[in-house]
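Handoff note, outgoing to incoming analyst
You'll be picking up this chain. Sequence as last confirmed:
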Amino acid sequence: MKTFKHSLLILVFATTLFACKKDKDQNELVELQKLETLNKKIQDIIPTQYLDSLKKLGLTINTGTNPTNIEGIYSIQPMILKSTNKKSDYAIGTRFGDARLRVFEQNDKLDIKLIGKGFLGTSDTSIVTAISGIDNDFTVYGKVKSIHNNKIALFAIIFSGTIENNTIKNFNYGLICISNKNDISDTSFIKEGEGRVVFE
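Most recent structure output, in case you need it:
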């Protein structure tokens, strides 16, 4: 009887361990799939070469698939130029006009929508957007179509920061032209591959 109970206990223990391992493996698989989906979304917004350019300019990128909810309306000021790869650009330290940012409809699939004012133009609405991060540290990626003098160009706008008491701390953002098929002499937009990093 004692042997039977002992064997039963071992069987229950082994079954529990197997179930725990199976759950852990399943959770890891779900997390990997979520990360793969996020990376594809980011690639659709900003090609790796341009994201790397913004990183070299000092833009913070918060990776991960578990950012906190950051929905809200934020006033960003002052906006100071940190770095640029554009020749004959504004001087480092130049202060730009204040900006406003609205982020909404964030979901578990790492989708989010954003509307900005004063980043690229008077009104910037993303056509493709995603969010990454862990807990309060986040990065939002947006692709924006800009129209000026009947000319069109595509830009990536990347925002990073830390949510704290309903405000964004350590806010910085990168702006880079990812598609400009206009004539090389046209000055409606900065050239493809040119970008800036700005901090608050």
